[in-house]
Amino acid sequence: MAKKGLLLGLMSLFIAGCSDDSAFGPGQWLDLTHDFSSDTVYWPTSDPFTMTVVHEGVTDKGFYYAAYKFCAAEHGGTHIDAPIHFAEGRRTVDRIPLAQLVGPAVRIDVTEQALKNRDYQVGVADLENWEARYGKIPASGIVLLHTGYGRYWPDRVKYLGTDKRGEEGVAGLHFPGLHPEAAAWLAVNRNIRAAGIDTASIDYGQSQTFDSHVILMSRDIPAFENVANLDKMPPTGAQVIALPMKIRGGSGGPLRIIAYIR
């Protein structure tokens, strides 16, 4: 019933906007999503986002009409990794329960460490230090890792460590991520709903085996990647809604992720 109440409350916020009598009281919406365009950052082995015009202008019947089509890989821009992305037999993106995509969020700030070391991995000590200051990460919470690399979007060299394409580009990736030991700690000790990060992958750029992906997704925990505006998120007190494109059987997809901050 608590989850149902939370979902209904968040739906009422969509309808009411930021009013004082909303279900959560006065607050504001924060968009955590990068827009999709030709500048959107994709993995070096993926094709870029493209959008073409189907029609734009006044029709022969006298009214204005605009329509476009786009082409995009599942995993690029602000997007979700569904559990099946790295765990055979786990949930596809259309099978993730809505309640798992909505909930209280915490922002763990490691910008000082990560901006000094492009290969920094958020460790258990970082999580414990955060809890010592702010309290225990809530059960079934959404954990967002703020490395500071969102400030570099969409500069591929600064954001990814390289602007090269293909396997040469993959070899040149250098950006922070979540250490596998910390991924296990969050999954087992805090039973989180989802994890997110303001880099291109929940694993750091030089990972060869993507262990943090495997650990989380083997437990049906999705990851949100290329999350925007985490510098504007408070450490606690936000509610997050992360709704992906509902692709049947998909291993991920474009994500519109927002936060309500009181």
Q: Briefly, what is this?
A:
The chain has 262 residues and is α/β, with parallel strands linked by helices. It is built from seven helices and twelve strands. It has a single domain (2-46, 73-261), classed as Glucose Oxidase, domain 1, CATH 3.50.30.50.
What do these coordinates show?
Helix 6 (180-189) packs parallel to helix 7. Strands 4-10-9-7-5-11-12 form a seven-stranded mixed beta barrel. A two-stranded antiparallel ribbon has the order 2-3. Strands 6-8 form a two-stranded parallel sheet. With 262 residues, the chain is an alpha/beta fold. It has one domain: Glucose Oxidase, domain 1 (3-Layer(bba) Sandwich), CATH 3.50.30. A hairpin with a 5-residue loop joins strand 2 (50-58) and strand 3. The protein contains seven helices and twelve strands. The chain has helices spanning 2-16, 111-114, 124-134, 156-160, 166-171, 180-189, 211-217; strands spanning 28-31, 50-58, 64-71, 79-81, 102-109, 121-122, 142-146, 177-178, 194-197, 223-225, 238-244, 252-261. The two termini are 23 Å apart.
The count of DSSP E runs of length 2 or more, i.e. the number of strands, is 12
Gross morphology is: globular
Q: Which CATH class is shown? A: Alpha Beta
Largest sheet: 7 strands, mixed, barrel
| Amount of helix | 10-25%
H/E element order: HEEEEEHEHEHHEHEHEEE
Strand content is 15-25%
CATH topology: Glucose Oxidase, domain 1
Oligomer: single chain
CATH superfamily: Putative cyclase
N- and C-termini, Cα separation: 23 Å
Q: From the 3D coordinates, which CATH architecture would you assign? A: 3-Layer(bba) Sandwich
Structural class: alpha/beta
